[in-house]
Amino acid sequence: MDGNVFHTTCTYPPSPPRSGACAPASGYPGGKTQSIHNPPVPFVTPISGGILPGKKIFISGVLNPNAQRFTVNLICGPHDGGGDIAFHFDVRIRVGGQRDVIVRNSCQGGGWGAEERHSPCFPFVPNAKFDIKIKTKPGKFKIAVNKQHLLEFRHRMKPLDRINTLQILGDLRLTEVRL
Ligand code: GAL
User: Fold this and answer.
1) Ligand 1: residues whose CB is within 6 Å?
2) Architecture of domain 35-178 in CATH?
3) For the segment 55-98, what is each residue's pLDDT rounded down to a tens digit?
4) Does a cis peptide bond (omega within 30 degrees of 0) precede residue 16?
5) Measured from the CA of 113, which atom of ligand 1 is nearest?
C-alpha cells in the first residue's frame, strides 16, 4: 500500500485541511441499517444519523497475505476522512519493530491522544477472514472480533452523534460492512 498513508499527524489519510469539523449529525435513529458488500479499500461512508448508544457497526473482511496494518476510524465528519477521529482502531501486524498490536486512540484538533494498547489476544492473521463488531454503549465502544469480546474504548468525544463517518483502510479486502 501507499507508504504515505500512515503518518503521525491527524489528517489521516492525507487530505486537504478542514475547517469547523464536528457539526452535529441529525436524524438518528431514522437511519436504517445498510449493508455494503465487497466495497473497495480505502472505504469511507457516512454513518446515517451519527453514532448513539445502541449503534452497531459490523465489518467483515480478509487480511491481505502480507498484511502489515489496517485501520478503522470513526470520524467527526466531513465524509472524506478528514476531521477529528473519535475512535482510531489501528491493527498493526508488522509495522516497523511492532508486531501484533492493536493501537486505540483519538485525534482532536490535529493531535493524537493517549494510546491504549493492551489486548488479551491478537486475533488477526494474514490471509484469514475476520469480523469486527463495534457496539456503542453509553460510556464506551465494545469491540468483538470473530464473535468474541476483545476490548473496550471509553468515549472521549461527545456528543456521540458528532461521529458521522466510518473509514477503513489498509491491507485488507472488505467483504461486508453493515451499519
Ligand atoms: C501514530 C501513527 C498514527 C496513529 C497514531 C495512534 O504513531 O503514526 O497513524 O496510528 O500513532 O496513536
Assistant:
1) 6-8, 88, 90, 103, 105, 112, 115
2) Sandwich (2.60)
3) 999 999 999 999 999 999 999 987 565 689 999 999 999 999 99
4) no
5) 12
